[in-house]
Amino acid sequence: MAKLGKRMTAAKAAVDVNKHYSVDEAVKIVKDNAKAKFDETVEVAMNLGVDPRHADQMVRGVVNLPNGTGKSLRVAVFAKDAKADEAKAAGADVVGAEDLMESIQAGNMDFDRVIATPDMMGIVGRLGKVLGPKGLMPNPKVGTVTPNVKKAIEDAKGGAVQFRVEKAGVIHAGVGKASFSQDKLAENVKAFIDAVTRAKPTGAKGTYVQGVSISSTMGPGLKIDPNA
After folding, report:
1. What pTM value is reported for the model?
2. Which residues contact 190 (CB under 8 A, 6 or more apart)?
3. Distances from the Cα of 47 to the Cαs of 56, 75, 115, 170, in angstroms?
4. Which one of 100, 132, 160, 222 is separated from 91 by 20 to 30 angstroms, measured CA to CA?
């Protein structure tokens, strides 16, 4: 614990908690202080001026990060017949219909993203109480209910990040790994902030983006100037 304490103390000393950094400055500091024995995930958190309890203030969407996430996602696909074959050929990790539903109901959830063809939503809908709380429910708004399963799988595997605002008005997501180059990480951070900014709902009043911060898994958070 003492070693971790020293590392965190040194990392925090490199951060001015009152300063708003540019994305490039923040990414450099995060990379410099990511000294854990594993490849830390770099995460962006955004505080938004919305109340997601109101439908016209819900913020959700998907962004294709230009340099991927550095994480290999496991993808489950609800499809039948030719679409099931297409999903398997595109690299889906799990493919099925009623059998996949029963497997999930039995507690088998070894995947990070769920995609479904539109005709499968009658089956998928029965899993709402299981998939919904984990943020895995397929939704046409983020491209996970689609007849084009090949593209959806390729997007998921290639760095498509879904985002959805939480009760407190916060959105956060992993946007890469500390081992990424500074330029690639900065590109991903900017792409994520831009996507959330563009997803501003009609009911949002006042200042929409109220705060942005970036951190690595084990590192301190840095405030980012969203206008920089």
Report:
1. 0.77
2. 23
3. 17, 29, 28, 5
4. 132
